[in-house]
Specification:
Strand content: under 5%
Structural class: mainly alpha
Protein name: Glutaminyl-peptide cyclotransferase
Number of strands: 0
Order of helices and strands: HHHHHHH
Organism: Haematococcus lacustris
Number of domains: 2
Radius of gyration: 26 Å
Number of helices: 7
Keywords: Transferase
GO molecular function: transferase activity
């Protein structure tokens, strides 16, 4: 989904409106009918509605109900993108663990040694 978002076409207003015209009209259709002053007055509402529309379209994609998507190609990682992505994630996780362990060891080495023995003052 990130790749589709970065490419910009799949989740563009026009592409989403084409795939879900009724939903677009229900959420955003009235915005096109209002005059300019009314649109500016309702700016926050229109931003919120656009976010709702985008969220619904993203949910459709993630749930596998979006039309025009070759989910089998994505599941089978036809272009190898997922393997590369996960390889980088695993590598990053390993590096993070290494440095966390190193910091823990350094902190333990720097900590003063405490003895439970009673003090003979």
């Amino acid at each position: 989904m990130r790749r589709l978002q970065e490419q910009g076409d799949f989740f563009s207003d026009s592409a989403m409106r084409e795939r879900a015209p009724l939903l677009h009209h229900q959420l955003l259709g009235h915005l096109g009918e209002a005059d300019r002053a009314a649109q500016q007055a309702a700016g926050e509402d229109s931003d919120w509605l656009r976010k709702q529309f985008l969220q619904e379209m993203e949910n459709r994609f993630l749930s596998g109900t979006e039309t025009g998507v070759a989910y089998e190609d994505i599941d089978n990682d036809v272009d190898g993108v997922l393997d590369e992505h996960w390889r980088k994630e695993v590598q990053q996780d390993a590096e993070d663990r290494y440095f966390e362990d190193l910091e823990s060891e350094e902190a333990a080495a720097e900590a003063p040694a405490h003895s439970n023995a009673p003090c003979d003052y």
